[in-house]
Amino acid sequence: MDWTALWISVELGLWTVLLLLPLGVFLGHFLAFHRFRGRRLLEAFLAMPLVLPPTVIGYYLLTVFGKGTWIGQGWEALTGGPLAFTFEGLIAASVIANIPFAVQPMQRAFEAIPPEVREAGMCCGMSPLRLLRRIELPLAWPGAVTAMVLSFAHTLGEFGIVLMVGGNIAGETRTISIAIYDRVQAFDDVAAGEMAAVLLVISFVSIVCVLTLADRIGQRHGK
Amino acid sequence: MASERRNDKALAVTLRQRAPIPLDVNFTCNAGELLAIVGPSGGGKSTILRAIAGLVTPSSGRIECNGKTWLDTETGINLAAHHRSTGFVFQSFALFPHMSARANVEEALPVEASLKERRRIAEELLARVHLAGLEERKPSELSGGQQQRVAVARALAREPNVILLDEPFSAVDEATRKKLQSELLTLRQTLNVPILLVTHSLEEATLLADNICLVHHGKSLQSGPTQTVLNNPASSQAARLIGHRNIFGGEIVAQLPEAQKTMISWAGHRVEADYQPDFTTGSQIMWLVPQSGVILHQRVRPSKGERENPIAGEVIECLKAGDNTRIALCVSGETDPLALSVPTHVAERNSIRIGETIQVSLLAKAIHILPD
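YS: structure for the whole thing
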């Protein structure tokens, strides 16, 4: 059992969720309540990670994160280290790959708020920020929870993108799913089995959490 | 204009647009007045309220309330909804489902007030709408009528400059509706702001409103004091909207000021109406007679009324509707039927059946002439 790899996966998942929460709220809110030309194109672009093979996303991100691009150079100038094959690079890749898992549930949750309820908020004198804080977020909270748990679980299981962008550096970029692959390659079936079982349990618990929370919050909101 | 003179706190509205929902309205509502915007469903009535509240922006218009300009498309003024002081009661009530009745009201109170103060005011408002003791209930734990009361309390909480009621009684049962209507009548006596009520029910408008504005396809057809509009529709379209069925075309054939009569030629018949001097002899007009102005001649015992515009017609419809029977007559030379309503026992006593020919009188004083 590679505890370091498990911890790296959990840490990666937590960072991804932390960064995606505001981004998911912003993009989900924007897409739910604004009608503009090219909205569908933007939605399609954000949904790309759902359909693209992870290795393809990984390949593009590796190219973009490389030292030859302004992103790679800018990051290095800012932090002194490279983006590709580092934990920071993994976080950036994981955030990008999980955008649809965070944005879509948030968007649906915002869209599910009856328009008159938002309008009633405006007529009560609520500014857009207060409306978000007092009405929209409390009502869309099940969507946010779903988005976060799905992103976390998906990050734990991510393989292709992690391997492409992070490689397999022990203690730095070797996540639990890479470690399972590594152990299988080394014919260490016992360790691979243990780690696979841990992932299985975490994934199952995540889904149960999502369903239970959605139910409870739904009841609290009188649905 | 619904009101001839505007007081300082009045609401003045002019809205025009072609799409997505056509609008062409112009009305004023003074503080303390209740103006009902009446018209069929889907006629743009709710859009008018939403435009006043700032929830939609018309392509052209001007809205002034309490001396402030909320919208002026010419100068580019367009206050956001949360900056307009409106108390909006939605058709579906639109309560915040995750909050208690008290919290719903508190949300509309000024944020500067202390928590204690907000709580006190919210509880007072809920008591005013007869909801004391139910403050902690969520909307899902309240009946339709109770939810509507919370919505009213929430609308009052801001001490708004205008109250907008969008079909507020349509989602509750008949008994609750009557109760809520009475409560609104009591409540409005204490409010010195313009109140706008959108409704498709003329009965409701007649019961509650000082003035009405008839709206059809987003266009205001007529506005003014309720009884004036109901008794003197300005056009055949307004008359139809009010529910008149007996609207016919004709020609003014004589004006007799000495006899105080106006003579109309209608489908080969000569109809005598009370003197209406606004129309010149020879002009093509529409005219209407309310069903209450169509009097059945008793077939067994002729009455005095038969001398007044006697018209014969064949019964083409005879429907019992409770205590009354609705009758439609086919009059020679006219394609549209003449409708009247008589007590069912009268219809039975006179053996009125489809295919029979009966005589009626059109009361001259009930005939109202409309421009063609």
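YS: worth flagging: Chain A touches chain B through 23 residues (CB under 8 Å).
IM: good catch. Also Residues 189-220 of chain A form the longest helix (32 residues).
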